[in-house]
Each structure stands twice: as structure tokens, then as C-alpha cells.
Amino acid sequence: MNELASQFLPHLFSNNNVSNPFAPRGNHAAKADGSFTPAVDLFNISSKYLIHASLPGAKKSDIDVSWNANNSSISISGVVHRPAGVDEEMLNTMAVDERQIGLFERSIKLSDEDVSIDVDGISAKLEEGVLIVTVPKLLQDEWTEVRKVDIE
Description:
Blueprint lengths: L1 H11 L27 E6 L2 E7 L8 E6 L4 E8 L7 H4 L10 E8 L6 E2 L5 E5 L2 E9 L14
Antiparallel strand pairs: 1-2, 2-8, 3-4, 4-5, 6-8, 7-8
């Protein structure tokens, strides 16, 4: 079966218009300093942006999410620790080390378009190893500011 798959899969995804769903996307490997960049999905929905960041093993208290209005981006940073009970002696017996552990940081630019963001409505939650950040858009048709001007 493995021989058949190794012969078939490269031809299946050889067309440049079709991406290989099994190929890794982006550069999410650990860096020389031990930090890593978490993988994200960004959805541009008419009423909001939705970001899913893969952070298995992360705790809510170890994650920071911030909005940068100057470049319309969300920054996610923090640390992922090994589970409790993994001591130095146990680390010395590790046979495979593939999990992303350590400091992480990722900045996600939302759009080059002129989109107004409801800064007070930005929210984040951590569900089963996925950080979900919701960034609501202010639709121009939603409200119009009217202000009375005094005459001097």
C-alpha cells in the first residue's frame, strides 16, 4: 500500500493549481532560539475577521493577544510549557521531540483595505488547543455620526 501511495500522490498533486493537502504550509518550525511561530487560519468574513491559531498545550494565562491599529494587525504571543511531571530525567529519555514548546509570537495583518475595526469588540478564547480571535468590522452603513455645530 505504501508503495502505491508513494507512486500515486506526487502525480495527483503535480498540477500547480492544486495544492497538496498533506504538505506542510508556512514556516512553523522551531527557530534557533527555541521559539516558534504558530500556524494560523485567517477568515475574512463580511462582518468580522476570524483567526484560528494552533496552540496545543497552551494555557490561557500564558497567551497575550493585542491589536495594533497602526498596521491593522493582531499580535499573538506567549509560551507553551511541557506538561507537569516532565522533569530533566524524563527529558533525557525522550526518543522523539516534535511538539512545539517554548516562546511563540505571530503577527497577523488583517487587510490592506480601508476597513474600520470595532476595537472594543475584539475577543479571544482558547478551545481545545486552538486560540480563536474574533475581530469585528464596523460597517460604514451601521451608523452615521451626527454632531450639532454651535454658531458663534
